[in-house]
Amino acid sequence: MPLKHDGMTLWCKAECLQPIGAFKIRGAWHRLSDLTEEERARGVVAFSSGNHAQGVAWAAKRLGIKATIVMPADAPKRKIESTRGYGAEIILYDRRSEDRIAIASRIAAETGAVVVPSFDDPWIIEGQGSTGLEAMVQIIAQAGIHPHRVVTCCGGGGLAAGIALAMPGARITVVEPDGWDDMGNSLRAKKIVPVAPDAPDTVCDALLTPRVSPLTFEILKERKADAVSVSDAQVFRAMRHAHERLRLVLEPGGAAALAAVLEGKVEVDDRTLIILSGGNVDPALFSKALAS
Q1: Which residue in the list 13, 24, 48, 186 is annotated as catalytic?
Q2: What is the value of pTM for the model shown?
Q3: Staple partner for 113: which of 45, 71, 105, 231, CB 3.0–4.6 Å?
């Protein structure tokens, strides 16, 4: 959808309007629908702070697959309840002291379930990339132009890497929360740099990935993606702006890319695509953003 900004028309892809409220449904469906019958019978296990969890649970329910989801205990209540509502079994963990990958791997070893990573997987990356393909077709249909810059949030990098592959002619800018900008630091260092152990708290729960994967990192490095980070206050302003101008409800992580644009951290023009990646936010936090 178009968004007027400083005399320009920017283009926003509202993934918050997906059935689960986020783009993660794309990769989850692509991965699970490609499982063999034998793999489906064994079930799946995933780890996520909420949106991938809901995507996997949603797809598993429709495909008749048992799903177990490892989620942080401090994930938004709405995301935990929605995931459970789709029929998945929830295993909670402490994101500061426990390793979600290790927990999922142990469950897979004990039950035979197929691990469905949130970003470190070719099927997931390919599925998320459909966001860019679809947006490109829509912008061409509405305005007759090809977007040549994409601004997108980044946690583990599955969405950004998928779009980078789907739109090879576009420049990619990834946006992360301040202190959790491991993809940006990795791209600048040309090697993977994990998040510091004392990383600050942030409202962007969907973007808290301690370490990016070699797969997503190499794709974005090869595509010469650049990166910026945003503060919680800047994210709150973007959430309010999206609500006032686009009548959309965005979660903090879903508003990160827009925040970078509104704060002038990214050079944009009329051929810029902004990914509004999700809208699964607890009412109290959304009210806080509107009042900030």
Answers
A1: 24
A2: 0.94
A3: 45
Choosing from 49, 82, 229, 277, which is the catalytic residue? 277
Structural domain boundaries enclosing 150: 2-22+122-291
Q: How many structural domains compose the chain?
A: 2
- Give yes or no: residues 281 and 156 share one domain: yes
| Residue 27 and residue 44 in contact, taking contact as beta carbons nearer than 8 Å | no
169 and 206 share one domain: yes
174 has a pLDDT exceeding 90: yes
Packing angle between helix 51-63 and helix 24-32, nearest 10 degrees? Answer: 40
Closest CA to 66 of 89, 96, 35: 89
Assign 9 to helix, strand or coil.
strand
3-state secondary structure of 12: strand
Closest Cα partner for 92 from 108, 82, 103? 103
Question: Is 33 designated active site?
Answer: no
186 assigned to active site: no
Q: How far is CA 130 from CA 54, 115, 155, 242, 249, in A?
A: 18, 22, 18, 23, 22
Nearest to 253 by CA among 289, 207, 199: 207
Q: Give the tens place of pLDDT for each residue, 219-253.
A: 999 999 999 999 999 999 999 999 999 999 999 99
CATH code, domain with 285: 3.40.50.1100
pLDDT digits (tens, 9 = 90+) for 103-130: 999 999 999 999 999 999 999 999 999 9
